[in-house]
Amino acid sequence: MVVAVAVLRPDRLDGALDLLSCAGESLAAAHMARSVPERSSGTRLAVLRAAAAVLAVRGRTTGAAGPVDVWRLLPQVAPELTEWADFFATVLPEGGARPGHGVSGPMSVREVDDLLRQGEDFVRLVAGILGLPPVRVTGDLVALTPSSETAHFPGDMRADADQDAHLPGDMRAGGSGETWAGGGAG
C-alpha cells in the first residue's frame, strides 16, 4: 500500500491564511445573497479558495501545461479531502456551469442552503487540517424564498422531495448555523 505523506510548506502559510480569509468573505457574501445563483456563486468561490489554500501549502509543482481542475488535484496532495473533492466536482461542475445550477439543473433554495452549509464545513475542515485559525464569517443568513429560485429560472417548479439524495454519507443536511468556519488549535 502506498501512503501519501503531506508536504507542509510553512513558507506558504501566509498565502493560505489570506486565501482562507477571502473564503470567509465569500461565505459572508453567500450568507447575504438574495438569490440562489448569488448564494451558489459565493459558496463556489469560498470552497475554491479553501482548496487553493491546501494546494498552496501542500502542493507540488507539476509539469502540466494549462489549467488543472482543482478537484482532481486536491486528492493528490490531501487524500483526506478526496470525498469532498468528489462532492464539489459533482455539485459545482467546472466548464461553464451557470451559478445556481447543479448536476440536475437549477438548484432549489434548500439545495443552495445545504451547499452553503457544506461549504462552511469544508472551509472549517481545511483551516483545521492546515493548523490555521478559524475563519470568521460575518453577516447573518438572509432567508431566500422559493421566488428567489424561480426569479432567475422561470418554469422551474421542481418538488423539494429528498434534495439531499446526492450528498455523500456524512455530508447530508444538518449544519449548525455557526458564524465560524475553521478550526485550528486555539
Short structural summary:
This protein is mostly helical and 186 residues long. It has helices at residues 13-32, 36-58, 70-77, 82-91, 109-130, 146-150, and strands spanning 101-102, 105-106, 135-136, 180-181. The chain has a two-stranded antiparallel ribbon. The protein has a two-stranded antiparallel ribbon with strand order 3-4.
What do these coordinates show?
This protein is mostly helical and 186 residues long. 47% of the residues lie in helices and 4% in strands. The chain contains six helices and four strands; from the N terminus they run H-H-H-H-E-E-H-E-H-E. It has helices at 13-32, 36-58, 70-77, 82-91, 109-130, 146-150, and strands spanning 101-102, 105-106, 135-136, 180-181. The strands form two sheets. A two-stranded antiparallel sheet has the order 1-2. Strands 3-4 form a two-stranded antiparallel ribbon. Strand 1 (101-102) and strand 2 form a beta hairpin. Helix 2 packs parallel to helix 5 (109-130). The longest helix has 23 residues, at 36-58. It is globular and about 45 Å long.
